[in-house]
Protein 1
Amino acid sequence: METCKISNVKRSVAAGSRGSQEIRQMVSGVLTAEKIAIEELVNSIDDSLVEAIELLLECKRHIVVTGLGKSGLVGRKIAASFSSTGSPAYFLHASEALHGDVGSVGRQDILLAISNSGETAEVVSVAAAVRNVGCKILAMTGRPTSTLAKIATKTINVGVSQEADLFDLVPSSSTTATMAMGDAIALALCQLRQTSKLHLAQLHPAGMIGRRLLTRVSDVMLTKADVPIVEETETIANSLLEMTQSRMGAVLICDTEKKLLGIFTDGDLRRLIQEPSFSLQDRIGSVMSRSPKFVFLRELAQSALHVMEINKISVLPVVDEDLSVTGIIHMHQVLSFGITS
């Protein structure tokens, strides 16, 4: 039934008129075919896959991924996904492995050999070689009865009914299915190992993941003279001067020991000036917002951004364990670090 769906899409592309509509049909046809390939994988999940994942979970050393051609390129990505989610892994080029590099594989490693046909000579030879040193082998193939599958300890079936091209020849649906299965296994292992956010951050010290999971409020906040602070006895007029000079759109109200008492923002000012009794000589303590939202010094900057977005505010006081003000953080500062909630 799924094969019929793919064929119908391909026929519609072949029969379509040339131009933008035909291009849309071409793209849609390929994406639909690859979507169907992944749906086929979902429907084929069985005990063999569970046993393969359990075997990987018990791996005492490295998951060594090997492949050639398109399968090799997919294998590199799968190995990277394993390593970045807490399962130590590396990619071993099948051709180079047969010229000495296979010596890097030991009996405590697990070889994940990828070949859609299961007959790629170099991949089969690598699997045979590491089997001789007692290494367990997982075959990821579209043919569970292939030579590679027969050598393997366990087989992961990534077979698809058709490729996405008109001639059913170009590795497309099969490579998508293989990569998706690699992601599924890597993330299943990540969950089974109960990998924490902190561990993921340590594995991604740079880039978006690292910034989101490692950047703390203390890395982003303004401190010392840049923090607009007044005492509650200060006039509204002088408090506004402090707020204007800091360009933070807010002023923090503290006691003599810098304990946070309240906050006054430009939004508070807009509401206040509508009051008939408003006077710039009034004490700021009489109009400040008491019990303001705040963040602790060691919290993640991403958490601070979340608090600001939820409460629709742009500024947060930063306090230590004694609730003494140590800084102030603005939403724009967090966003400038490339951090999103």
Protein 2
Amino acid sequence: MSPEYRGTVFVEVERQQLTLSGPNSWVSPQIQLPILADQLILSWNAIISQQTGITLEIRAFCHDRWTSYYTAAHWSPSPQYFPRQSVAGQQDNDGMMDTDILRLHKPASKAQLRLTYRGVIPPQWTFLALCATDTQASFDELPPCAKAWGRELVVPEKTQLGWEGGTGWCSPTSTAMVLAYWAKKLHRSDLTYDVPEVAAAVYDPTWNGTGNWSFNTAFAGAHAGIRAYVTRFSDIYELEHDIYELEQWILAGVPPIVSVSYDLLKGKAEAHDAGHLMVCIGFTKTGDPVFNDPYYRPEHGETCRRVFPRINFLRAWNHSHKTVYLIYPSDHSIPQTTYHHWACSAKC
């Protein structure tokens, strides 16, 4: 494996690469993966009418044959017309669709997507991408990007608590905070949401929660001019100091949402929690990461801004193989994608 990918590769599928495979469906080309990947995560941004629903499927080429297609999602802005949910029970000898992650028993060298819509008006695909990860990868750590130390982005604070059912709303609350950040920057009121609104828009009844990674970014990316997707940074499970790429995004003025184990973040020896999402807003002068943590009670004097030891954060973040949501205007200047871990843009 080439070290330039460092365990993860992010592959965009351009709209013009999709070919019609039926009256209401498209298929992507066979996507050659430059690494052997045992996990695949799909992201999509689309403008969809209220009475249209889409189904996204994915298959992988493992060793010498293609798997069957797995349904990554049924997605619709209005579940009263068409379903918005993942699909349970998708497990066979090749792998399993685990809500938002296709987990393969044998690593894949290629992948392919199939997209279908129901309704009168076809969707307008604005962004489609695949994050492929080799969870067994191991490379030397990168040096810190100390230019980001001492910098913090001013991200509006929101709590997941105080709402009925809100104890599990860390993901939509984090998504709401980042959208509010861009609402202020861009003077766009359409990006401002109360937490329950985002929670309702990303709720996955199959998973019975709001933590579906791809659903959160699909909701954010449905806003005009906003790009949003799930990816992973350098996936080096056994190393505990590599936050270089996260620091680059802070310098670019983009607050990433990170998926962590809350137990490990708090210094516990083992992770027994279901995971937690927070917004990284910057770093202290000594390099410890600073977050807007949605799990706080302002009425008890607790604050959204929290600092955690760098080593604790790395252990906690490694638990998700360094998963992030990246949400930003499509014309915003972003870091160069040196290791192919995120999208490119006109200003990339």
Protein 3
Amino acid sequence: SPQSVAKAAATHLSVQLLEVFKPNGYEGTDQNATESYQKEDRIMEEQTTKGRAEFDSLAKVQTNPEAETFSKLVEENQELRNQLEEQRRLVIDLSADRDEKQREIDRLKFFIERIENDRKPLENELEESERKRTVCKQVIAKYLRLLQELHNKEKKAMIANQSVRLGQLIYKRIGSQFKHVWEDGDELIQLKSQLEEIIKEKEGLEKIRRSKKSRRIIKEAINPNNSLDKEAVDTLFDFSNSIELSRSLSKIEETEEKEFLTLKISMKQKEETRLRERLELIKKEKIVLSQEMKRQNDELNSTLCGKKSQEKFKILNDQYLILSLLGKGGYSEVYKGYDLENCREVALK
């Protein structure tokens, strides 16, 4: 009957659409798919032609409603065939796109495998370089520790020698508190003593020169008749305790004695200048020595370099080697360190 033919055609189209919408089940090339589709079209065309012939033969005895129904089914069949053809073209395009993407995937996989093969030697080389870098850091830290220990010993020996020469800081009770007080060394005490002696000798020479000058004033004040005027008498009494009135000197002797005193005072003045310059230099050395003594005392009580520290030369953050204390304030400590990564000296607060 026409209904059975239309039903068979619709069932066939549904099966074809289900196969179209299952791309994962498709295997083969685009050419094979096209040939398969053409074969199915021919079979469907033959079935449709046969169904139309049967319908024409039966149309004469069938009623008009059945003919209209079959005509609608034929139109729907044609529409489904058009949709099927469109879906087939879409499947062909998708298949071509899928093949292109598959080739791109294969190419990328090849590059990935190549990169992986190149990565393994690089990783081994990186591990070897990392191992060598660690060994180098350990060796550098070891020799820096030894060098710093030698440097500390040299500083302690220098301070011991300079303490005898320049002095040292001692704790002394001042009132109710104990404070650091500087005690002068042998050289500083001797230098101050020499300076005091030079100053005393120079003052003595100045007094003698002034006394010689007063003697001349007295001689000039005495007139030939052995009489003195009032001013001369006052002058005489002012200097009578230090001058011998009975002695008379010639002008030549006075000149020679004056030159001798002037020369001697000049020599003492130069000696005093030299001693003062030497004393200033020693005072500067004393300041440096006192600062170093204070720094060493602070270092003994510091957090990272002191007696209570667990490790003497500690490495912070696996990079910074602590060597010594540079200074200490009210809130923090500043250390001299070495950057093992960049190989440079740094200050660490």
